[in-house]
Amino acid sequence: MNSSSSKRFNAIAGGYASSEVHTGSPTLDRLHTLLPRVDSVCDLACGAGHSGLGFAGIASRIVAVDPAPNMLAQVQRLAAERDVAVETVEAFAESIPLASASFDLVVCRLAAHHFSDLPKAMTEMTRLAKPGGYVAIIDMEGDENPTLDALNHEIEVLHDPTHVRSYTAMYWRELFAANGLKVEACENRCWEVPGGLTVKRWCELGDSGAEALQAIQDRLASVLPEWLSELEITRDSDGGFRIPVRTLLVLGRKPSDSRA
Ligand SMILES: C[S@@+](CC[C@H](N)C(=O)[O-])C[C@H]1O[C@@H](n2cnc3c(N)ncnc32)[C@H](O)[C@@H]1O
């Protein structure tokens, strides 16, 4: 994340507290079903903290990490409303000032596509997990087909100019393996919002602006219908497009005999 990205997230933090994409999702529910009981959770690039706060009543320690102070203020506000104890840490994913091997779960949702150095961030996430602990990623999914991936990327950058890259399931598997994490689940083509989201609403949430909204609509109108159906983008009766906010969920486990 650079300073323009940091400013952007500080400016739109309020919307993340109530956004229908972020407050909860089928993939977050799925993550809970895949995990055993965890007692300590680090929510990395937490935004308004929905992923970490979802472990209230389960984990005795929840730590929320984000470089945007206004996001951390939203976490504290939501935690106070719910009477949940949460520690907040202002930091980038690439360098996290927390002790190694201190969490049963490190979760990072809808954020890795912003990281300027994902391999470094992944090393940090792995470092923070206890031996036998988990690292979970939920993020926008890249496409194995280069043409579709390029279109997907173009649309994402129009929506959010700070978008770095959506990665494929294959890439995530390689990254987990390179960090010595055993992949216990890798599920793709998940939808963060059942029924999808109109491009208009998607752009509202991202504060993309009217020009970007128009550019996305125009670009989608220009592509082959087969491409849209591959990306599961549909059209409403008013002609507007609806996107699935398609994600993947990768859950990895650090070996119990790991030293770090
Ligand atoms: C879409 S929001 C995350 C939403 C949140 N994880 C959730 O599931 O509700 C993306 C977050 O990533 C954070 N971010 C961007 N670049 C980052 C980086 N390099 N390190 C850590 N956080 C970063 C932003 O400040 C922002 O809060």
From TrEMBL:
The keyword Signal does not apply. GO terms for biological process: methylation. This is Methyltransferase type 11. Signal peptide: none annotated. Keywords: Methyltransferase, Transferase. Residues 43-137 form the Methyltransferase type domain. The lineage of its organism: Bacteria, Pseudomonadati, Pseudomonadota, Gammaproteobacteria, Methylococcales. Pfam families: Methyltransf_11. Belongs to the methyltransferase superfamily. It comes from the Bacteria. It comes from Methylobacter tundripaludum (strain ATCC BAA-1195 / DSM 17260 / SV96). InterPro entries: Diverse_substrate_MTase, Methyltransf_11, SAM-dependent_MTases_sf. One of its GO terms (molecular function) is S-adenosylmethionine-dependent methyltransferase activity.
